[in-house]
Specification:
Number of domains of chain B: 1
Distance between the termini of chain A: 41 Å
Shape of chain B: globular
CATH class of chain B: Mainly Beta
Number of strands of chain A: 7
Strand order of the largest sheet of chain A: 6-5-4-3-7
CATH class of one domain in chain A: Mainly Alpha
Order of helices and strands of chain A: HHHHHHEEHEEEEEH
Radius of gyration of chain A: 22 Å
Strand content of chain A: 5-15%
Oligomer: heterodimer
Largest sheet of chain A: 5 strands, antiparallel
Distance between the termini of chain B: 49 Å
Chain lengths: 300, 525
């Protein structure tokens, strides 16, 4: 194996996924998976692997190897990908919608196209449908009040933007519910230093985009300290978005020191800053932030 | 009749100006610094040139002479060959090209028609040509070896080495030795059974094959439990080195499959993660040395072997040096493979150390998740090291990544990922890297130039006292070979996935490096 960015980091080369391929691959797999019916257009629409123990096991193994780096080992959501065990999928919950999401990815998001064989995709879908829905870690709150908290008392919007309103320092949260699990959101609010970003798992990382939200302080030769998040950095320069939301661009040879702290610029919102009931409301509001669906709307 | 004669004279003149690259010229490559004739520039693997026009005093005045766009996507990992003013390179997705090395203008382009579903683990990459006579040799992503005419790019022969449907693939730059073209297979993530092949440069006929996973009845077969040898992996995806005096090809091998689960492949898993010394004429194994027996962390030994003759404990000795992906720096006797010395050259947690026989003293992992250093990308990887005989330093690009590994059984399916685990980079420590200079005999670090990100590019040293390097953040960097001071750098706009070469034309020293999808040539004004 060559490098760290192998299968889990790389998009597989997309290939043709016609019904005939599903039949062939199912044959190759020794009949482990049951071939799917193809429509006249050659597009399979339903999953005859659903509920089949062997397919679910196979899907779990495929999921673990290919999807877990973003969606978590048990599909309960990771730092980058949403919880997929909820029985409700943002980009469509029908078999054909899920099939499409996996093969084509979701444009405009971090979800890539994947080159699985059709039978493999059906196994993954069978696995996802076999999962018990997650325990919701919080009682439902009031999203209207949550929005007030976000834009008012708690100051979230000083740093985070939602649909064009808010600050620039933190991640834009316009569609955060479509990409992060509730557990992850709670963790990010209560303990923001816990996991700073999925930056190291980001497939773009080897293009030199750190995409991290740890605290960076540049100490100039005159002793001034400018703190912010690094929008980019290499051995020779750093591009800082400072806490006053100005861009500050430095050559490292011209500054005294560049300090990286393993802590988020975001303060931890503990019980005294954000009560459990306020957290419930805030999460309920964040759960409404799903952006625009990119695919056609379909019921199951 | 006169016309025909005239034409014949022209043809002869043409042949003269682009003379044949004989085996003798490959042997004498160090004395032809105007050219770059093999992957590592010379058979000893040094990636070192005696050119010194660009040196510590003037390297800061380097400027771009030309750029060549492959016009394709993916990692551009080629090491070009340069012969008498023509540069030959391979690109992504089965592309190749010949350029006027003075201007960067294309003379021809080649595009292999690749099948739709190919499964190279780590990109549709290729690391370069080998040249012999008037032919270029390329090992292709669909597991063929081909010969192209150097002047036209015309296909001369095309042989199938293995079945790409089972995820056998080539990414390696071949090594031309005598009349042979030697290649090693890729596919260690897919449960292949690895091999190193030699083909007749004239006809494409296979002359020998060394199977890196011994079958029943072959020595070493007993190091694979049950039927695990059938899908044992052990690719050989980086170009080896060659000692013409001993007539031995030194070819390193990669990981056993599945790479991160060893439960069903009990034993040392020979010849995974090993250095193989093969008779160049027959492919017969003269000796082997296994760096990482029964590997669980993907520690391919696919780092270029550096062949150095030096005094060892008071006696001249033919040595083989390797800074290994597993985090240890090794010195072997290359006549017989005797282990002489090893030491960690960075943070290593998978083993406590190396015993007097060269075997690692291993810390066994917890299958539920263990933080292991180095991580799967290794303390170093395939990118070329460079040995400078003036400083007696080995320049190695290193990474600090540690990974959290989990491990679980996985059924084999032909052509399918066969990893037995997932691993994720340690979420606490952000991986960085460095270009480090080590004393070639002791592994002692002399200097370290920090990279912000883990590297994917190696090093080129020259007698100008400079080291050329490239980082993953897109910087092409010139360092002082003695001190590691950065003399000059330029941002090329995309990650560097290869290593520089140098050549001379019209009295001017060029340095060429790929970045993104572009080949850049630099020279002094």
């Amino acid at each position: 194996m060559n490098l760290g960015h192998r299968s889990i980091f790389l998009q597989k080369a997309p290939g043709p996924s016609a019904g005939i391929a599903a039949l062939l691959s199912a044959t190759l797999l020794g009949g482990l998976l049951i071939p799917n019916l193809a429509t006249a257009a050659g597009k399979p629409t339903s999953n005859s692997a659903e509920g089949k123990a062997a397919a679910i096991k196979e899907g779990a193994s495929l999921f673990r190897a290919n999807c877990s780096p973003c969606h978590g080992l048990s599909a309960r959501g990771g730092g980058r990908g949403p919880d997929l065990s909820s029985g409700r999928w943002t980009h469509g919950s029908t078999d054909s919608a899920m099939f499409r999401t996996i093969t084509q990815g979701v444009p405009g998001t971090e979800m890539p196209a994947n080159g699985f064989q059709d039978a493999e995709i059906w196994a993954i879908i069978a696995y996802l449908r076999s999962l018990a829905p997650p325990d919701h870690p919080l009682a439902p709150g009031d999203p209207v009040n949550g929005k007030k908290i976000f834009f008012g008392s708690s100051g979230c919007s000083n740093c985070h933007m939602v649909k064009g309103s808010g600050g620039l320092l933190g991640p834009d949260l316009s569609r955060v519910a479509a990409s992060r699990s509730v557990a992850y959101l709670i963790d990010s609010i209560r303990r923001p230093d816990q996991e700073l970003s999925g930056g190291m798992l980001d497939p773009n990382n080897h293009y030199g985009l750190p995409l991290v939200y740890d605290t960076v302080t540049v100490v100039t030769t005159s002793g001034a300290r400018i703190t912010g998040v690094a929008r980019n950095e290499d051995s020779f320069s750093v591009q800082l978005l400072a806490t006053d939301q100005s861009l500050q661009l430095f050559l490292k040879k011209d500054v005294k020191e560049v300090i990286h702290e393993r802590k988020s610029l975001m303060p931890p919102y503990l019980e005294e800053a954000l009560s459990t009931s306020q957290l419930q409301d805030l999460i309920s509001y964040l759960e409404t932030l799903r952006g625009e669906e990119t695919g056609p709307k379909e019921g199951r | 009749m006169k016309k025909i004669l005239f034409l014949a004279v022209l043809l002869v003149a043409g042949a003269d100006s682009h003379s044949q690259v004989t085996y003798e010229r490959l042997l004498g490559a160090p004395r032809e610094p105007q050219n770059w004739l093999t992957y590592s520039g010379r058979y000893s693997g040094w990636r070192y040139s005696i050119l010194n026009q660009v040196n510590t005093d003037n390297a800061a005045r380097l400027g771009m002479r030309w750029a060549f766009q492959v016009a394709d996507l993916g990692q551009f990992e080629t090491t070009p060959i340069v012969v008498d003013g023509v540069l030959y390179g391979t690109g992504q997705n089965g592309r190749a090209f010949a350029l006027d090395a003075r201007t960067g203008r294309a003379i021809w382009r080649y595009q292999r028609n690749l099948p739709a579903k190919l499964q190279p683990c780590c990109g549709m990459v290729n690391r370069g040509f080998a040249i012999l006579g008037d032919r270029l040799f390329m090992a292709t992503l669909d597991a063929h070896v081909i010969a192209l005419d150097a002047k036209t790019g015309n296909l001369l022969w095309d042989v199938t080495s293995a079945d790409y449907h089972k995820a056998y693939t080539f990414t390696v730059a071949p090594l031309a030795v005598k009349n042979e073209v030697i290649v090693g297979i890729s596919g260690g993530e897919y449960g292949i059974r690895g091999f190193i092949d030699a083909y007749d440069a004239a006809t494409g006929r296979r002359l020998w094959r060394f199977e890196t996973v011994p079958g029943p009845g072959q020595p070493g077969h007993e190091t694979w439990a049950g039927e695990s040898w059938r899908t044992g992996g052990v690719p050989a995806w980086i170009t080896g080195s060659y000692d013409p005096e001993l007539n031995l090809v030194y070819w390193p091998t990669g990981n056993p499959s599945p790479s991160n689960y060893g439960g069903e492949r009990g034993g040392d898993n020979l010849y995974s993660n090993s250095m193989l010394a093969l008779d160049a004429d027959t492919g017969k194994l003269k000796w082997y040395f296994q760096f990482t027996p029964h590997d669980l962390y993907d520690y391919d030994a696919t780092q270029i072997p550096i062949l150095v003759d030096a005094d060892w404990e008071g006696h001249p000795r033919k040595l083989l040096i390797q800074a290994n992906r597993n985090g240890f720096f090794y010195v072997l006797d290359r006549t017989d493979g005797k282990f002489l010395f090893a030491k960690a050259f960075g943070t290593v947690t998978w083993a406590k150390g190396i015993d007097p026989d060269g075997k690692p003293i291993v810390n066994r992992p917890n299958p539920a998740g263990t933080r292991v250093c180095p991580g799967a990308p290794g303390l170093t990887n395939w990118f070329a090291p460079s040995y400078d005989p003036q400083t007696k330093l080995l320049y190695v690009a290193t990474s600090t990544e540690c990974d959290v590994f989990t491990s679980s059984p996985q059924p084999y399916r032909a052509g399918h990922d066969f990893l037995g685990s997932v691993y994720v980079p340690d979420p606490v420590e952000r991986p960085t890297g460095a270009l480090e200079a080590f004393d070639v005999l002791t592994g002692t670090e002399k200097w370290s130039f920090p990279y912000f990100s883990s590297p994917n590019g190696g090093a080129l040293s020259t007698s100008g006292g400079v080291v050329f390097a490239g980082d993953s953040d897109g910087n092409f960097i010139v360092l002082d070979a003695k001190t590691g001071r950065d003399i000059w750098h330029v941002q090329l706009g995309a990650a560097i996935y290869s290593t520089a070469i140098t050549f001379e034309l019209d009295g001017m020293q060029y340095v060429v490096i790929p970045a993104g999808s572009t080949l850049f040539a630099f020279a002094l004004p």
